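quick one, two chains, predict together pls
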Amino acid sequence: MGTAVVALLTGMSTLLVNSAQNRQATTAAVVVRDEAEAVELAVAQPGAWCASSYTVVYTPPVGDSVTSAFGPCPANNSTTPQFQVVTVTATAFDGNAETLVIAVRKP
Amino acid sequence: MSRGRTYVGHQGEQGSALVLALLFLTVCGVTIGGLLTFMNASSSATTALRVSRGSDYDALSAMQAAIANVRVGNACGTGTSGYTPSWTLNVSTRGLRVDCVAVAPPIYDSTTSPLPHSMPSNAYAARSTAEFGDLVSFAGSKRRLASVTVTLEDWAAHSAYPTWPAAGWQYPITLELYTVDRTGATPAPGQLIVSNTQTFTIPWKPEPDPTCTTSGYWRASDTGLCYSSVPANITFDLSTLNVDLPDEVIFGVAFNTKNNGTAPTGVDGPYSLLNIAMSSSASVGTNVEPDAVYQNSTFGGSYADNGASGVGTFRRDTGWSPYTPALQVVATDIPSALKRNDLFSVCPSTATAPCPDAESLLRANVTFYDGQSVGKSLDVQTWSNR
């Protein structure tokens, strides 16, 4: 009986922990994709390409954070492909992180 | 006895409690087991979704980078000359390549889009025809032949030819393009520019509905109406031929039937019920002689002059207004792999409105090396200086 109760408690504990992790991972994945979409939108704004900073309009849910690390701006000439690689990282409040790499180009 | 009964009763209560406890634990165990299974499935689905989304972003990003490359003059073709991203992908185990192809609007188009349930058509077998076509003039200035689409009309249902594949029947069909010989009183086929045979899969006509008034007709579920046959487009990819078209051509579509064609089959088949679909006008380019077509028939009655000018040759025939074969011709000026100056060279930097020749599109298609495709395709219409 005791073993059964311990097994049940362990199962419930696993269930709760993993469900929470799954929820955080899912939330982080959504946040990172939302941020990526916002980045693409920001880059596409007139005159925004390779400005000193982009105006990314997105607010993650309370407790989550998100950052976008832009690769270097390409040399502004007629022979260098005008695109940047952006690494978007979302971190849930439990520390669960999700990363998405995207490439954005000059409109 | 009283103590004994009490003892027995007490033992029974303990047994019931044990049973209830075991039952409770069993229910809890099953429930938690079910939830764990569900959680596991949910986690797997989340992981799969993350991989899928990662691939989506990889595909989109690679296409954007490919376009950026093309815009500065780097080539992006197909296959080994396609574009491969240089950064680490979200799903690094799924390498990908971007194939770039030029997309251009047609220079001649008498097809109908979307295809209707049925179209007027001209029979080959029933009219002893080996080849059928028309004289058409092209719009615009693009003349590097890319593709030709022909609309056929299939009257054959699979039930009539059960030994052929149910998913559609395959058959070789030939497209021929001729220059226009205008030395005579009327135009005539001149030099053969293109003769290309490709095998196409022709869809069967839906099975006949016995409730239709006309025997053999099929009923469309959306309109509730009955139709004789079904149209299907076939496209000849001719981009590798490097053929530059004149401003007008006479085209012909040919295939073998039981008794006609370059090699009559001698037996009946679904090709006996395959026609060429006819339109009433061209939306792009010009049907030069609306009343005339060109055909090769061994049956004199197929011609307006009852064959007086000869049968069994590909020649002009009249009395066809307003019908012309449904045909679409696509051409481009791009010679090979796409480059900025080929694609986007025409729009001046001062232009504020869409450029008149804003017809060059870049279509980037993504292919994953594992053979899977996410169906990604991106069209961009732009100019080098915009």
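The mean pLDDT of chain A is 87.
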